[in-house]
Design brief:
It is a single chain. It is built from three helices and six strands; from the N terminus they run H-H-H-E-E-E-E-E-E. It is of the alpha+beta class. The chain has a domain at about 60-125: SH3 type barrels (Roll), CATH 2.30.30.100. A hairpin with a 2-residue loop joins strand 3 (about 105-110) and strand 4 (about 110-115). The longest helix is centred in the middle third of the chain and has 10 residues, at about 60-70. It is elongated and about 100 Å long.
C-alpha cells in the first residue's frame, strides 16, 4: 500500500501571494484635518422665524403632524428623500431638516426653506401620498 499513488495529486507548484506595501515617509509642512473634525463644523444654523402675537391660532391637521413627526427621525430623513411637501402656493421637493415650533425646515438643493405646518396640504414620496 505504501507504494500506491495518492488518490488526488496536484502536479503544480504551491502558489503564495504576498502583499507588499512600500512605506515612504515624506516631510510635509501642510496641516491636515481629521475627517471627524470637519463633520462637527457642518452644523446648520436655522434662521429664526418671527411670529407676531396678533396671529390667529390655526388648526393643524393631526394626520400631517403625525407623519412629519415620523419622518423627522434621523434615519427616516435619509430613507424618505426626496420628499414633496404640497402647499396651496407651491410644491417643495427636498430633504427634511427639522420640525420646530410648528415650522418645517427643508433643504431644497442648497437652500433652506421654511414651511408653516398649517399650510401643508399633503406629503408625497415617489408621487404618492405618504401615510404611516
Amino acid at each position: 500500500m505504501r507504494n500506491a499513488e495518492p488518490l488526488l495529486f496536484i502536479k503544480s507548484p504551491v502558489i503564495r501571494k504576498f502583499m507588499y506595501t512600500p512605506t515612504v515617509e515624506e516631510e510635509s509642512t501642510s496641516v491636515f484635518e481629521m475627517e471627524h473634525t470637519r463633520e462637527a463644523e457642518r452644523v446648520i444654523e436655522l434662521p429664526q422665524l418671527v411670529v407676531s402675537d396678533e396671529e390667529v391660532s390655526v388648526e393643524i391637521n393631526p394626520h400631517i403632524l403625525r407623519n412629519l413627526d415620523y419622518l423627522v427621525h434621523p434615519f427616516r430623513k435619509e430613507l424618505y428623500q426626496p420628499i414633496e411637501i404640497v402647499t396651496e402656493e407651491r410644491v417643495v421637493m427636498g430633504k427634511l431638516e427639522e420640525l420646530k415650533d410648528e415650522v418645517l425646515w427643508m433643504k431644497e438643493g442648497e437652500d433652506l426653506t421654511s414651511i408653516a405646518i398649517h399650510d401643508i396640504r399633503d406629503i408625497k414620496w415617489k408621487q404618492q401620498s405618504f401615510s404611516i
